[in-house]
Amino acid sequence: MYMNQFPKMRPWAARSLAALLAGFMLALSLPLLAFAQAASEPAAAPAAQAPAPAAPTAAVTEEAIENPYGLQALWGQGDYVAKGTLVILVIMSMGSWYIIFTKVFEQRSMMKSAVSDAETFWKASSVNAGASALKAGSAMHFIAEQGIKASDHHEGTMVEAIDKSTWITMSMDRAVGSVQSRLQDGMAFLATVGSTAPFVGLFGTVWGIYNALVKIGISGQASIDKVAGPVGEALIMTAIGLAVAVPAVMGYNWLLRRNKGVMDLTRAFAGDLHNVLLAGKR
Fold it and tell me: Tens of pLDDT along 228-268?
């Protein structure tokens, strides 16, 4: 009975109340939807960005690929002519560096000995005493020994026909020439390597290009990947030839200049000793 105490709701009022309730529910649902969307976006972003770290892996994979046309491939796939050419260039390079290092050590020793031996020799009381004070086996000792020997042994029918001054001069010139010849050891090898190594490398390149073109012609494929690889592999020989020749040429010119400095000291000592042996004074 208590239900009947309230009058019945009119139709327009019912529709208005339904619309009001629907708007209220919509107003409540919009913040919830926005919050759900904001919460779901951070989780989706890493999923979209997940493939990004794959780029370094691809780069590492490309770097890890072995070059099929490098020096190792040249030795492994080359024939006897290519391998023989490469061995010749390696021997030339090893010989050049060995001569350069040994000659530098020898020249340094001779320069140091020339200064110290000359000082020791001229401080001695006599020529014979000065020669005895010199280091055995040195260039100065050899020159002094030859000069004293020529001065003390100027006898014999054929020798006496030459005056003593000329005889001593000839003996000391031969001694200086022997020292100079000793300094020139190995220089011819450097000159030969410097002048021929580029042509040896060029020969290897020509032979490699010939073989590459034959293989390309047999396969019938003339694309850039089929031509550039073998031709580039053949050009390695020219690069090796230049790498062998340049140090040899530079070492030859440098050692030649140092030899001149050593011979200047040697000739100065020989000239002073010649004056002492002939005139008795320096």
Answer: 666 777 788 888 999 999 999 999 999 999 999 889 888 88
**Phi, psi torsion values for 69, nearest 5 degrees:** -125, 30
Burial class of residue 74, CB neighbours in 10 A (0-12, 13-18, 19+): buried
Amino acid at 102: T
Q: How far apart (Å, rounded) are the C-alpha atoms in residues 183 and 173?
A: 15
Q: Which residues contact 238 (CB under 8 A, 6 or more apart)?
A: 198, 201, 202, 204, 205
pTM score of the predicted model: 0.65
CB distance 269 to 140 below 8 Å: yes
**Number of Cα atoms under 13 Å in the Cβ half of residue 261:** 15
